Structures are given as structure tokens and as C-alpha cells.
Amino acid sequence: MNNISCLRCSIKGNIGLQCSLVLSGIKPSNLLIYSNHCEGCISEELKNTGAEHMKLYTGSKESVSIIFNREKLEKALLDEENREFIKQYGYEDFSVNSVIEKLAGRYTEFKEGRAEFPHEMGIVLGYPLEDVSGFIENNGKNYLYSGYWKVYKNAEEKIRLFKTYKDIKKYFVEQIENGKQIYQICFECRKFAEIAA
């Protein structure tokens, strides 16, 4: 296998592990952490999936991009309570691109040790506001359950949701290992999205 194929497999596996919930239509977005030399493969792997990506941070060896479903992220950003929450961090334009661009600046400042973690990222990633607020109020402690995020309310409901998330991720990675393309797996996983909706 040549180097390009190896890189492609590496980024494909990372996308499956880190972003299967977005690609399955459940979450509005997820972070993708990848080696800088893999960056050119991301767009190719996301072809025909309906997902988009924008870079949040460029490190010396690794970078972070956000993989997102524009329609679902727009819906999250239209929510009035979510908007009121992120306004306190200086957001005024709630269009998807504008929010991601501002988040990228704030996340870069955090990564470079110049600012605190941008907690509004939880809203962009589709975490419930009650849990994002709970995390801030409790400094990340006193949670009811810790899974894909720290849960502060409605634990039983979210434990069931996390089980669905785990099943999707497992299926996604298995199908990648079986040689399927990401866009093919996306459509197969729509049934999971219906279950979790």
C-alpha cells in the first residue's frame, strides 16, 4: 500500500471514530483531530456525505477541524436559549460560518494558553444547554453521568442516547474495516438517526 493510501486509511478511520454521529445525521457537529499531513484527504473522504468541514486550529503536528451538518447546526443556532447563551461570549452573527469562524479564534486562543476553554463549543457540538450550563456551574464536577459529555439532568434518557451513539460508532468503524466508503455507511446509518431522534 503506498503512502497516499495509508494516509487515506488513517484519516478515514479517524473520521469514523470521531465523526460517525454527525455523518449518521444525529449530531450537528463533531471535532476531528488529525495529523497535519492528512488534511488534504478530509474533503475527499467527506464527498457525497452531506457533511462539511472548517478548520478550528492548526498545531505544529496536529490540527483540529469541525465536521458539521449545516442544516442541523443551523437548527441548533436558531434556538433562542442557545443564542442567549452564546451571546455572553461575544457572538452577534449566528450564521453557521460566522459562529465557526469566531469559535476557531477563541479555540486557538485556548490552545495557545491565552484564554479559557470556549464553553459555547458544547452548543455547537449539540450538547444540551442544561448540561453545558451544569458543567460551567459545577466546574466539571458533581455530574450524574459521564459519557459523550458530562450529564447534569435527565441522566436516564441520555444514558440510552449514549448507548445508541456507541452502537453507531461501532457499526461505522466495522464497515470502514470491511472496506466500505464513508458515504455508503452514512446512508446505512440513517436508521440509527431515526431511533435517536
TrEMBL record:
Entry-linked InterPro entries: DUF3793
A Pfam family of this chain: DUF3793
Protein's name in the database: DUF3793 family protein
